[in-house]
Write a structure and sequence with these properties.
- It is a single chain.
- The chain is built from 7 helices and no strands.
- By secondary structure, it is mostly helical.
- The longest helix has about 40 residues.
- About 10% of the residues are buried.
- The protein is elongated and about 70 Å long.
Length: about 170
């Protein structure tokens, strides 16, 4: 997600250069390159949004089964998931790689724009909001009972620290 955000910012640099006047009169930029920068920005934005959604889903899964571990640093499932996000985001924003004149002549453009808006903005927003609300509700319900502390001082300090963290995250103030 951080790389997608970084590349998104780099691809926004053309707008700064245009505003400052460095490429304002460039025919190459106006006729050939501008829509490519915009398409790359849209693609990287979609990648970033779906990576954020993936991270939220992973966070909920970690909360549901906190002791599940992986023997590898990077699993094949993780690589495939990120690859699918990049490919899916590219397919969602594919129409943006064409010049505006070509897009305006395409008869399905209103439907593609609607699908793009739903799949890149609203659906990830709803998924992330719902999962984060469910995660906070679950954290509020899942406070560790102090009676489970028994005699082990190492576990006791870890559980007390966990309870303090939970109270900070779920605090209403």
């Amino acid at each position: 997600m951080a790389f997608a955000d970084l590349f998104l910012l780099l691809f926004q640099l053309h707008q700064v250069l245009f505003i400052l006047g460095f490429i304002r009169n460039s025919l190459w930029y106006r006729n050939h390159a501008r829509h490519l920068f915009v398409a790359a920005s849209n693609w990287l934005s979609a990648v970033s949004i779906w990576c954020m959604t993936y991270a939220t889903i992973e966070r909920v899964q970690v909360f549901r089964s906190p002791f599940r571990t992986s023997k590898r640093n990077v699993s094949l499932r993780f690589i495939l998931s990120l690859s699918m996000i990049v490919i899916f985001a590219f397919l969602l924003t594919f129409i943006n790689w064409f010049p505006a004149e070509v897009r305006q002549e395409f008869f399905l453009m209103p439907y593609i724009s609607l699908a793009n808006t739903l799949l890149v903005v609203f659906i990830p927003l709803i998924i992330c909001a719902t999962l984060n609300i469910l995660l906070i509700v679950a954290l509020r319900r899942n406070t560790m009972p102090m009676a489970m502390l028994n005699d082990c001082t190492a576990q006791k300090s870890l559980i007390i620290a966990r309870n303090k963290t939970e109270r900070k995250v779920t605090n209403d103030n």
